[in-house]
């Protein structure tokens, strides 16, 4: 102890203390964080049971011990397995911090555990189930484009690049979103997105929209015709680019031409 | 003379001897003309000539390349070009060659002007704008004599008749403005919605039932009888566009708004009351609708009230009910004109 206290004013003492604190926090987190091990089990009741355990560790602090919600998170009764699969499959849940909107990130849970939690949440009340692949196989792209412009483009932009909403909220970019998650988002209306249930947008139309979105956001099928797309964000960034870089280059070129004398005697 | 004085005297101009007034900021005049290499060296001039010619020829070559791109490159061919990524080969070729052609013409013109055209400075000294007094006097005298001889000062009736004719004749052209289009009359106040018209889903052309509309969903509707194949479809929908939302009835703050809906189903105009942009950026948790043009924000849970932005009127709401067959139908037109305000708008 004397050895340590004698060196407590050493220039590197603060650094060492910081490293010890970081290692302790990280170690504790690694020890207590939800395990990444998959625990798949075909039995539905067992899945619900496993899901309940995972739920108690990872979700209950915000959504309440039995999914009834709290002031930190909405009730999950009746949201259905599709909502859980979307929120956790895109990494939005578990949320890192409260805010205007929970952004997508790398999924925290592996898919088998997501399925278990989804099974548990689905047992809380009837809601939309996780779709099977035949429900979200891409359909008619042309019809999908028309439906997309009617129902989706106002927020997600004509090319699926996303856009700003009020008070820090935003409609996310659709590039790289899997057909299943697009389907689930339309069905469940995550966060502030309105839902488009099968009663007003039948399933074939959802498949048409998926066909359009996956095609329009894929550079291989929908290249940038003019070269520089500037993020497909429309006239504002294009104008900004034109004014700043286009005019900037012209002004710089004029200055460069005028700065060099054409006279024989250089001064 | 002290040391300091001598130092101060060093800073005076050479000619600045005491007793002789010299302007320290005298106009130096134009510098002597400096020739360019091309002015004195015929070889350099010929070299410049060749460079200019080469750029003009490059422009011609690029123009032929432009034609070749148009003819030879397949329209749908996609190539990867760093740093642009995947681009349409023909578009890229057309833009690139045309850009090179125009740039070459510009470079040739500038090089020609800078190296071969005359660069002798030709000063044009300024002169007073005012005419000499004799000329001014002459003009005034002529004017007075003309005014006297025409009798415009003495014959008042003649003068007034002339002024009247010169005013009325050009103003008569105002009636031509009538040809700019028919008057809007009362068309701005009414839409295609009317009592008993069912709400038709824009997605599948089916009439909507209340059980179709889930809480938190967003649906777009058109009035019954309006077909997309109609010649004036866009014109009709520009006013009649409707968005339908469903809000938990206990979340609806405006009593009248709740009464005008059906069990939380509310139908609002999709046209912003600021300058008429279509708005449907609906946030289902806050019940706010945002206009993408100027960020006007409306609270659909509070009668379409404006809570942010430049819009001057709340979003008009359509009174709806369920008809005998169980379909959602309108109870009349919007009670207020949809879209932006205009001069004759009553409220």
UniProtKB/TrEMBL annotation, chain A:
Membrane topology designation: Multi-pass membrane protein
Residue stretches making up the Cytochrome c domain: 46-125, 139-217
InterPro entries found in the cross-reference section: bc1_cytC-su, Cyt_c-like_dom, Cyt_c-like_dom_sf, Cytochrome_c_Oxidase_Subunit
Residues that span the membrane, as ranges: 240-259
PROSITE patterns in alphabetical order: CYTC
Main location: membrane
Annotated localization: Cell membrane
Enzyme Commission code(s) on record: 7.1.1.8
Sorted UniProt keywords: Cell membrane, Electron transport, Heme, Iron, Membrane, Metal-binding, Repeat, Respiratory chain, Translocase, Transmembrane, Transmembrane helix, Transport
Keyword Ribosomal protein attributed: no
Record keyword Transferase present: no
Subunit note: The cytochrome bc1 complex is composed of a cytochrome b (QcrB), the Rieske iron-sulfur protein (QcrA) and a diheme cytochrome c (QcrC) subunit.
Protein name: Cytochrome bc1 complex cytochrome c subunit
Organism: Streptantibioticus rubrisoli
From TrEMBL, chain B:
Spans annotated as Disordered: 1-28
All copies of domain Rieske, residue ranges: 260-329
Xref: PROSITE patterns: RIESKE
CDD domains: Rieske
SUPFAM superfamilies for this protein: ISP domain (SSF50022)
UniProt keyword Nucleotidyltransferase present: no
Membrane topology type: Multi-pass membrane protein
Localization of this protein: Cell membrane
Cofactor(s) required, per the database record: [2Fe-2S] cluster
Superkingdom in the source lineage: Bacteria
Main location: membrane
UniProt KW keywords: 2Fe-2S, Cell membrane, Disulfide bond, Electron transport, Iron, Iron-sulfur, Membrane, Metal-binding, Oxidoreductase, Respiratory chain, Transmembrane, Transmembrane helix, Transport
Biased composition (Basic and acidic residues): 1-14
Transmembrane segments: 51-73, 93-113, 160-177
Function: Iron-sulfur subunit of the cytochrome bc1 complex, an essential component of the respiratory electron transport chain required for ATP synthesis. The bc1 complex catalyzes the oxidation of menaquinol and the reduction of cytochrome c in the respiratory chain. The bc1 complex operates through a Q-cycle mechanism that couples electron transfer to generation of the proton gradient that drives ATP synthesis.
Protein name: Cytochrome bc1 complex Rieske iron-sulfur subunit
Organism, as annotated: Streptantibioticus rubrisoli
Organism taxonomic ancestry: Bacteria, Bacillati, Actinomycetota, Actinomycetes, Kitasatosporales
């Amino acid at each position: 102890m004397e050895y340590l206290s004698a060196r407590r004013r050493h220039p590197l003492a603060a650094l060492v203390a910081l490293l010890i604190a970081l290692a302790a926090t990280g170690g504790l987190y690694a020890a207590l964080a939800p395990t990444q091990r998959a625990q798949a089990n075909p039995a539905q009741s067992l899945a619900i049971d496993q899901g309940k355990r995972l739920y108690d560790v990872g979700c209950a602090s915000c959504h309440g011990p039995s999914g009834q919600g709290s002031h930190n998170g909405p009730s999950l009764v009746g949201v259905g397995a599709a909502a859980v699969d979307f929120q956790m499959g895109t990494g939005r849940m578990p949320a890192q911090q409260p805010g205007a909107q929970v952004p997508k990130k790398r999924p925290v849970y592996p898919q088998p555990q997501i399925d278990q939690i989804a099974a548990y949440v689905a047992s809380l009340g009837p809601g939309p189930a996780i779709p099977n692949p035949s429900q979200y196989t891409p359909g008619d792209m042309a019809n999908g484009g028309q439906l997309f412009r009617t129902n989706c483009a106002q927020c997600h932009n004509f090319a699926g690049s996303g856009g700003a909403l009020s008070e820090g909220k935003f409609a996310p970019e659709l590039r790289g979103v899997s057909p299943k998650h697009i389907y689930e988002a339309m069905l469940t209306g995550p966060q502030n997105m309105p839902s488009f249930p099968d009663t007003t947008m039948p399933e074939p139309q959802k498949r048409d929209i998926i066909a359009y979105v996956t095609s329009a956001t894929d550079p291989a099928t929908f290249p940038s015709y003019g070269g520089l797309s500037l993020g497909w964000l429309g006239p504002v960034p294009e104008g900004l680019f034109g004014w700043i870089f286009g005019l900037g280059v012209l002004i710089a070129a004029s200055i460069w031409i005028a700065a060099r004398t054409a006279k024989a005697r250089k001064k | 003379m002290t040391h300091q004085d001598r130092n101060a005297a060093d800073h005076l101009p050479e000619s600045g001897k005491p007793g002789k007034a010299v302007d320290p900021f005298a106009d130096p005049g134009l510098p002597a003309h400096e020739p360019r290499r091309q002015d004195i060296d015929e070889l350099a001039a010929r070299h410049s000539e060749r460079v200019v010619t080469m750029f003009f020829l490059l422009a011609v070559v690029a123009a032929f390349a432009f034609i070749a791109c148009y003819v030879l490159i397949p329209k749908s061919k996609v190539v990867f070009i760093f740093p642009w990524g995947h681009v349409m080969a023909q578009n890229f070729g057309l833009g690139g060659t045309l850009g090179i052609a125009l740039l070459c013409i510009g470079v040739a013109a500038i090089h020609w002007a800078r190296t071969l055209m005359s660069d002798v400075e030709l000063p044009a000294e300024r002169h007073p704008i005012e005419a000499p007094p004799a000329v001014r006097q002459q003009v005034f005298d002529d004017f007075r004599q003309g005014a006297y001889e025409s009798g415009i000062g003495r014959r008042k009736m003649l003068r007034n008749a002339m002024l009247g004719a010169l005013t009325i004749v050009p103003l008569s052209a105002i009636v031509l403005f009538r040809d700019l289009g028919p008057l809007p009359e009362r068309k701005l106040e009414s839409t295609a919605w009317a009592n008993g018209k069912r709400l038709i889903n824009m997605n599948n052309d089916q009439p909507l039932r209340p059980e179709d509309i889930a809480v938190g969903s967003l649906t777009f509707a058109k009035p019954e009888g309006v077909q997309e194949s109609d010649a004036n479809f866009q014109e009709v929908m520009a006013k009649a566009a409707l968005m339908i939302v469903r809000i938990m009835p206990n979340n609806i703050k405006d009593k009248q708004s709740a009464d005008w809906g059906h069990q939380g189903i509310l139908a609002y105009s999709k046209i912003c009351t600021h300058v008429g942009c279509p708005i449907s950026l609906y946030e289902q948790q806050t019940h706010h609708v945002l206009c993408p043009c100027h960020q006007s924000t409306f609270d659909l849970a509070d009668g379409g009230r404006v809570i942010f932005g430049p819009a001057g009127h709340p979003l008009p709401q359509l009174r709806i009910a369920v008809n005998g067959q169980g379909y959602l139908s309108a109870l009349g037109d919007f009670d207020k004109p949809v879209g932006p305000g205009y001069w004759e708008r009553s409220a």
